[in-house]
Specification:
- The chain is an alpha/beta fold.
- The protein has 14 helices and 11 strands.
- The longest helix is centred in the C-terminal third of the chain and has 17 residues, at 268-284.
- It is globular, with a radius of gyration of 21 Å.
Length: 334
């Protein structure tokens, strides 16, 4: 598949990526000192960080979601802040506000917790729409407006939002426009039995290893640029577009039975994020080119929150996961 690359030298790209991605193993090892199991979540955090995206994590409380992003911030030597979302939260509590200074007879700006490299938005669906829209500007534009001033956020900037799928009382469902801003939506499951045994032992001992900063922010910024150089063949691009278009026009891909189950398909942001996530996955695997397996590895995380399902699908207990599975199984792999 990679033979006819014309002027593109895969060998050189591969060597470059192998060198640039050397820190990935270091970072993973450092995080594994504290995070037991949850390999999928750690990998998705790295994809979000390298792809300059944001992550929505869904899972019941107690699955180390907060711990994971805190550990990542420590291992990367970046600043970390946590915002606990509640129904009475105001936009100023997130972005910052103007404070009147009596001595100077003037307003001064107090920056909010959004000004950090790693921001944990805990239980994001508990905050009302105006707070979520304040977060939206920060996530999309990587900037914040306070009063008349606009501030550019630090780089790298990663928002990891969590939501509890069980509890619906006192929550506000995230608007589609905001959900679409998340590059990945990752669903976390319980640890395996032997992993949980290790978690219990370590907690009872109270002996967690100290996480040391093993990667600099500069290395992360260089890696974000290097990810763009990962080679993606035209056949892979076509494969990604076929998957996305099958969510919009399933009948054109011999999937007419999905038509009544899908209310809306993935937007162009879905195509961009699927391509970016596949490149990041190849980078984490220390490869300079994308293969179909990379696309298949990330497709659920990229698309599960981008496909709307109809009442008919809900009545038949069909989830967006089932729809993605059908599409991926039907679309021809290059």
């Amino acid at each position: 598949m990679m033979e006819d690359t014309g002027t593109i030298d895969i060998k050189t790209i591969n060597e470059k990526i192998e060198k640039e991605s050397a820190f990935v193993d270091l970072l993973t090892l450092e995080m594994n000192k504290v995070i037991v199991g949850q390999k999928h979540m750690v990998e998705r955090l790295l994809i979000g960080l390298l792809g300059q995206g944001h992550i929505l994590l869904e899972g019941v409380p107690g699955l180390a979601k907060t711990l994971a992003i805190n550990t990542l911030a420590q291992a990367v030597d970046g600043s970390f802040s946590r915002i606990q979302f509640t129904p009475d939260l105001l936009p100023a509590d997130v972005t910052g506000t103007l404070i009147y200074n009596i001595k100077a007879n003037d307003f001064s700006i107090k920056k909010g917790p959004i000004f950090a490299n790693f921001v944990l938005a805990d239980e994001i669906n508990r905050a009302p729409a105006k707070v979520q829209s304040a977060l939206l500007e920060a996530m999309q534009e990587k900037q914040v407006t306070i009063g008349d001033d606009t501030f550019v956020l630090d780089k790298p900037f990663l928002v990891m939002a969590t939501q509890n799928p069980v509890e619906q009382e006192g929550t506000y469902p995230l608007p589609e426009a905001q959900v679409d801003r998340f590059m990945l939506k990752t669903v976390i499951d319980y640890p395996k039995l032997d992993e949980e045994q290790l978690i219990v032992r370590a907690n009872l001992k109270g002996a967690w290893d100290k996480v040391n900063p093993v990667v600099s922010l500069e290395q992360i910024l260089n890696a974000q640029k290097a990810v763009r150089d990962v080679y993606m063949d035209e056949k892979i691009e076509k494969y990604i577009l076929d998957i996305i278009f099958a969510t919009r026009y399933p009948e054109k891909y011999k999937l007419a039975d999905l038509k009544p189950l899908i209310s809306f398909g993935a937007s162009p942001r879905g195509s961009i994020n699927l391509a970016t996530a596949a490149k990041c996955y190849a980078f984490i695997r220390r490869r300079g080119y994308v293969i179909p397996e990379d696309v298949r590895a990330v497709v659920h995380d990229v698309l599960r929150h981008r496909i709307g399902i109809t009442y008919e699908a809900e009545a038949e207990n069909v989830t967006s996961e089932d729809i993605i599975n059908k599409i991926v199984n039907e679309i021809e792999v290059p």
